Amino acid sequence: MHAFRTHNCAELRKDHVGQTVKLSGWVNRKRDHGGLLFIDLRDTFGVTQIVIDSDSPLLGEVEKWRNEFVVMITGKVVERAAEVVNAKLPTGEIEVRVEAAEVLSTAEVIPFQVAEDDNAGEDVRLRYRYLDLRREKMQKKIRLRNDVISSMRRRMWDQGFQEFNTPILTASSPEGARDFLVPSRLHPGKFYALPQAPQQFKQLLMMSGFDKYFQIAPCFRDEDSRADRLAEFYQLDVEMSFITEEDVYNTMEPVLQGLFEEFADFTGETRKVTQAPFPRIPYDEAMLKYGSDKPDLRNPLEICDVTDIFARDDVEFRAFKNVIDNGGVVRAIPAPQVSDKSRKFFDSLNDWARGEGAPGLGYIKFENGEGQGPIAKFVPAEAQDVLKAKMGLKDGDAVFFVCDKESAAAKLAGKARDKICADIGGLLEQGVYKFCWIIDYPMYELDEDTGHIDFSHNPFSMPQGGDAALDVEDKMDLLKVKAHQYDCVCNGYELCSGAIRNHKPETMVKAFGAVGYSKEVLEDKFGGMLNAMRFGAPPHGGCAFGVDRIVMLFCDEPNLREVNAFVMNGQFEDLLMNAPSETSPEQLKDLHIKLNLPKLKVTSDDEAAVKSA
């Protein structure tokens, strides 16, 4: 017989009745039924009920066991009586009567329950993550992650891709976020950077003659924490040579569609998946219709530009006209069949907008063919008819307005679209994964605070139109240049970002130079890639899909920390490993580093405490 087990805790069935078996696992629950002691024994596969009779010589010892003791038992499989069969357990028709038992490891009193959800706070769960991970729901999610990555690899291999590993210690690169820096002991004053993405290396692989690359790549970004963002994350990183945008879509859509169909019922609810080809929405259209470049297409509401209506001579709403005269726009968000809602519904949306930093959220609601509400009196009947026709509004509907500079109006209107959909209720389509590609991203964007133009997305992208598109007389015309860039979005989450790359050194120099990066800076930061381009680079492109966000969608979890085994809290602290931590003076000396820490503010209470001490 095996040293620890003949079966796992999910295997035994009625067919095993009469057999002597050995099981090992954790004590999940204990129940004393006066004469019989029942224990649910748990391992990663499942749970088996074991029984100690009152006349067993083992009873006194087993009664001392606590939850999470690791034990090994030997016993005979018996059939449960019909009235105590547990249909919820695969092993629910049998139990094991213990004949021998051994404690393999004891456990202290646990800080929270493993067998059930006792609403332990996140910090406690992360500090004792090894206990949290024993929970069935966490085990299922972490195993799902393994299965998803395995499926991704299989699907990429089936399409002829090869898996490569790229360096973790590399050079700093402007990927759009802050780098995590690693000091070099051998090169004082110099630093490595942890990769925000394997961008340059995967392009160099294409220039090295490898045609199809992929990797489940670790990435590191020193960004502020969010529920859908981690400092360390993984992505399905992909690159191909001699391709166009269409080739990227045609290659990756079957991977995504197949992957999502494979795991669509993980939560128990079967969901429909967008069939290839996925809808393709130009960036400008997405910002207009949805106020976001990661729209949730389950939400049926579409934003409409109604600047022309409020600019009419017969419309006298000066609050909007003043903004329009200064280059602003008016965006409208429909709210179907809400005229019967109480005043509280409309006021709460107005208060919400103020909380977002806007002056409010004006509206008109239509009843009996007439517009009502605080803005309606400034918009004559003829203009209201134009508004209704343009937006397809009818009696019972309302429309909310946002007025501001274009980018700010789009952002607030997008948030309002989601808020209105949620507040109305019943509008969001259920049981679906709705995909789309956002395409035709602007190559550059304007920082309105500094007036400086910089890259809006990936700086290594090929501008649409190539070199010629960058030949502009007015610097502001750079904002009209589109790039061969694309994002894949599902249910309001950006799952993928990608581009056709700039493979010509002269175009790269020109693209960076257009926004103030000198050739010397370019050579210093990206000399390796520039030199590789000078020796013959194929047209190439690719993308990267966030593994963590995909698993998060399958699990119906709003927080990435719920689908990773070991993670930091919202302040980027690893409570289990106590990181980040202080280092010793000797280590700092080895690295030629002196600390220049920010001064702590001393309050009057602190001073009083010092004096009293």
Q: What brief labels describe this structure?
A:
5-stranded mixed beta barrel; alpha+beta; 613 residues; globular
Topology:
Layout: E1 20-32, E2 36-43, E3 46-53, H1 59-62, E4 70-79, E5 94-105, H2 122-127, H3 129-132, H4 136-158, E6 162-163, E7 181-183, E8 191-193, H5 199-207, E9 212-220, E10 232-241, H6 245-263, E11 272-273, E12 280-282, H7 283-289, E13 304-305, H8 307-310, H9 318-325, E14 329-335, H10 343-355, E15 362-367, E16 370-372, H11 381-391, E17 398-404, H12 406-424, E18 432-433, E19 435-439, E20 444-446, E21 453-455, E22 485-490, E23 493-500, H13 505-513, H14 519-534, E24 540-546, H15 547-555, H16 585-590, H17 604-612
Parallel strand pairs: 3-5, 6-9, 11-18, 12-19
Antiparallel strand pairs: 1-2, 1-4, 2-3, 4-5, 7-8, 9-10, 10-24, 13-14, 14-17, 15-16, 15-17, 19-22, 20-21, 22-23, 23-24
Helix pairs in contact: 4-15, 5-14, 13-14
If you had to describe this structure to a student in words, what would you say it looks like?
This protein is α+β, with helices and mostly antiparallel strands and 613 residues long. Helices cover 29% and strands 23% of the residues. The protein is built from 17 helices and 24 strands. The strands form 6 sheets. The chain has an 8-stranded mixed beta sheet with strand order 6-9-10-24-23-22-19-12, sandwiched between helices. A 5-stranded mixed barrel has the order 1-2-3-5-4. A 5-stranded antiparallel beta sheet has the order 13-14-17-15-16. Helix 5 (199-207) packs parallel to helix 14 (519-534) and helix 13 (505-513) packs antiparallel against helix 14. The model has no long low-confidence stretch (mean pLDDT 93).
